[in-house]
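Figure 3 (text version): structure tokens given as input.
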């Protein structure tokens, strides 16, 4: 679990060796200033890692150090299934195919294709 909270061992390609809390902070800071406070108070942790004892408490502590306005991240009662439910909802959106990234695009553009395609404001309209 420590690997998620240490900058030099997060191990996520293309993240410039940021910890998970730093990645959350950077993601929020890339959003419009008007919605940052709202996002800070709407962090929902899901998936298998959210079930690790103490993970959500530790994430809350680390996020509070980086962004004092963050309320404690929450966890869904059905957190085991939340990624599947979210994925199902996302996949059912009519414009979702615009966000797909195929192998050929990654080979042509590298990891920067993720940032290009993740501009949700223009891709889902």
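Below: residues designed for each position.
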């Amino acid at each position: 679990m420590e690997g998620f909270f240490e900058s030099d061992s997060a191990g996520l390609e293309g993240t410039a060796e940021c910890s998970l809390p730093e990645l959350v902070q950077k993601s929020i800071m890339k959003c419009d200033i008007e919605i940052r406070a709202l996002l800070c108070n709407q962090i929902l942790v899901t998936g298998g890692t959210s079930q690790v004892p103490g993970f959500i408490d530790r994430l809350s502590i680390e996020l509070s150090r980086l962004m004092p306005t963050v309320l404690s991240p929450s966890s869904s009662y059905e957190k085991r299934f939340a990624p599947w439910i979210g994925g199902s909802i996302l996949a059912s959106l009519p414009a979702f195919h615009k966000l797909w990234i195929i192998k050929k695009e990654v080979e042509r553009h590298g990891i920067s294709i993720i940032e290009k395609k993740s501009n949700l404001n223009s891709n889902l309209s």
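The chain has two domains: 2-92, 93-125.
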